[in-house]
Amino acid sequence: MPLNIVGGDVTKIRANAIVNAADNTLKNNGGVCAAIFAAAGADRLQKACGIIGECGTGHAVATRGFALSKYIIHTAGPVWQGGGHGERNLLYACYRNSLALAGKYDCESIAFPLISSGANGYPSDKALRVAVRAIGDFLLENDMEVTLAIFGDVGFLLSGNLHTSIQEYINKNYEATHDEIQREITPAPRSRLEDMIDHPGETFQQMLFRLIDEGDESDPTVYRRANITRGAFWAIKSKPNHQPSKNTAICLAVALKLPLDVALDLLGRIGATLSPSSISDLIIKYHIAEGIYDIFRINETLYQYGQPLLGTRS
């Protein structure tokens, strides 16, 4: 499961590499850094950092993980100065350079705290956007399990306008009947109706791979954009009778940027739908209806509402 957003302490996550929110001197500077030093063994870790000496802002260096993990990757995040001093690019570089270093050391998994969002003063909502974008961009080209650990209150995750729009959508549709939901998405355009008639008995697998071919997409592009593993995708492709989970089917519909009626048709091939009595389904439906097909953005919203994430462990 490529990107998972969780609440809690990054030192409690099992991963090949744990990322330390370091300063330029690589010394124990409190906060998340202090927790990582304590979990790894402060004296040994400080000695290893002393050998390296320093880390430039936006850069990343690696030491042994000692008692914590196989490796600890140290990255120095920017101090927030109002946003006009290249902070976003530097923070983006923290994630990309840390991920590249993990790849260099053949790590299959890595866990990050929300870099620069503590003492460095980077606004948490903006820090999260950069983290998700940087990790998402990396995962479109690489296979790695990435966990982003967010400590404390998650109320900052969504901007005010987006939160209001989603909440209004949930309030409006949560009590809607199945017939009312159906009226929102019908009638289907004639070309879509003709397409359904042309392929009346397609299985989920047949419809999925027809849509992939029609979109001229490569398999790696689809499963990475869907935030599912290569193994999960291969199980669907190689086993004609394989029945994917509803979560996986939704991930693939989002990755293929399917219109709502087509997405529901694809889900129907495994006997699933987006239910008006499910908060998570309404959130997913809202994003698809609004043309928001970035699965990492959808997961930000699901996380704030306490719902299971798409393509990741809940």
Helix content: 40-55%
Strand percentage: 5-15%
How many strand units?
A: 6
- Biggest β-sheet description: 6 strands, mixed
Query: So, the CATH homologous superfamily of the largest domain?
Result: Leucine Aminopeptidase, subunit E, domain 1
Radius of gyration: 22 Å
Instruction: Provide the CATH topology of the largest domain.
Output: Leucine Aminopeptidase, subunit E, domain 1
- The spatial strand order of the largest sheet comes to 1-6-5-2-4-3
Characterization of the model:
It is a single chain. 49% of the residues lie in helices and 11% in strands. With 314 residues, it is of the alpha/beta class. The chain has a six-stranded mixed β-sheet, with helices on both faces. Helix 5 packs across helix 13 and helix 9 packs across helix 11. The chain is globular. The termini are close together. 40% of the residues are buried. About 4% of the residues have low confidence.
